Amino acid sequence: MNAPVLETEEHQALRAAVAALGKRYGRTYMTRVVREEGHPDELWADAAKLGYLGVNLPEEYGGGGGGIAELSIVLEELGAAGSPLLMMVVSPAICGTVIARFGTEAQKQTWLPGLADGSRTMAFGITEPDAGSNSHRITTTARRDGDDWILTGRKVFISGVDIADATLIVGRTEDARTGKLKPCLFIVPRDAPGFARHRIDMELQAPEKQFELVLDEVRLPSDALVGDEDAGLLQLFAGLNPERIMTAAFSLGMARFALAQAVEYAKERSVWKSPIGAHQAIAHPLAQSHIEIELARLMMQKASRLYDDGDDLGAGEAANMAKFAAADACVKAVDQAVHTLGGNGLTKEFGLASLIVASRVARIAPVSREMILNFVSHQSLGLPKSY
Asked: Which residue, among 8, 40, 7, has the nearest Cα to 24 in the 3D structure?
């Protein structure tokens, strides 16, 4: 059994500081950025200047020397203020972590300082049209050509490629001993010949756009490979576990923002001479949302602690559970918040209507809740696989 994870004074201070930054921007800022088809550059720059973006990266490369626990606090608090930064999930959490753990010294020197100070960003490309959540069906392949690598394939729903300096692409190479394909990670510069992107039109309102990528015989130098060619899934999940933890943080921030809006409204809105929050039909669902948010945060804290302590196996289970719980808590909180406000919940004034779509994303990406249930059923409970 693992001991309960409670936040340190340093973590509490970090929460307060990030919350103050988020309050300076808020939902109004993020709504304006989306409306203008822009990016939250000002918030990104301020978060970087204060050391929040690279809080999980090694100090010797300009980071804060912390871990995913600290980075998840940053994202959650910005989300609770109504201004989450989705690229935090991708750039410092996934790509920064993978490079810090498995990259060469040259790769670390090239990328980590920029990822830490926000001057450089990196996207992450794993999802494919026909693979879905099954990473074993990835068809993007990399083959040797002298000292170079040649990448060919397609990716879909890749966030922020238009603003990223490079994309960390998950491809597959052939194992010389078995002939089977194994996953490997490659840094692909945005201007690499043969590397094309096409924007996907989404109902989701967010500054970070989604893209389909085409890799048409993209030639990369040998040092584009991150880590050991034979490490396979170990390196991949070194990035996927932080992704799940950070998705939980993203969901919790959104849920807290929605709940806070509903609670404030329920205190002030009066019908039949009393605030609607005095009625149990309103109060109890909001209280239940608060409970679900707090429970999900505990699992996220557990997952962060296990990951930062180097327990990849334990972190995998906890990260999936945290993502599952936080996504459900988010969907329910947003739904109840809109219901509490009634017609006002669908107006732009309160900033909740756009979250109806956004909250659903947390249940779908980066891995569906059904795949998490599959993972828990056979990894945690030992039940046989259905596939």
From this structure: 40
